[in-house]
Design brief:
Layout lengths: L1 E9 L5 H17 L3 E17 L2 E13 L2 H12 L3 E8 L2 H12 L1 H16 L1
Antiparallel strand pairs: 1-3, 1-4, 2-3
Length: 124
């Protein structure tokens, strides 16, 4: 099974509860087709880089998962059918991206920033 990462942008007209329902629907679809969800990150309502369907904001959600390759086509067809999804992007992760994501989840990048701040406070 290959590891993937999907970012979807949902219409800003949805409430937070409705956006969670959409995410739950797609997560259930993934699990029903043999996927294992590794990590989820809800980025919330963000400003878009350019208008999509005359909207300037969208609910962003990232899902990292392991799945068989056949699932990706099914998943993307469902994204296209759902009018609440404005955009989506699914990428296959290589070993370097997987390692990077694991470090990011463990907080390795945040530790360096706090160490630098502590050094500046003690030295400054």
């Amino acid at each position: 099974m290959q590891q993937y990462e999907t970012v979807i942008i949902l219409t800003p007209l949805l409430s937070d509860e409705a956006a969670k329902e959409v995410i739950t629907k797609f997560n259930k679809l993934m699990k029903d087709n043999g996927a294992e969800i590794i990590h989820e990150d809800n980025w919330g309502l963000k400003k878009l880089a350019y208008p999509i369907q005359k909207k300037t904001n969208g609910h962003y959600h990232l899902t990292e998962f392991k799945a068989p390759g056949e699932l990706i086509n099914k998943l993307e067809v469902e994204y296209k059918r759902d009018e609440r999804v404005m955009r989506f992007l699914t990428i296959a992760l290589d070993k370097h991206a997987i390692a990077y994501n694991e470090k990011k989840r463990s907080g390795a990048f945040n530790k360096k920033k706090t160490e630098k701040v502590e050094e500046e406070v003690t030295n400054g």
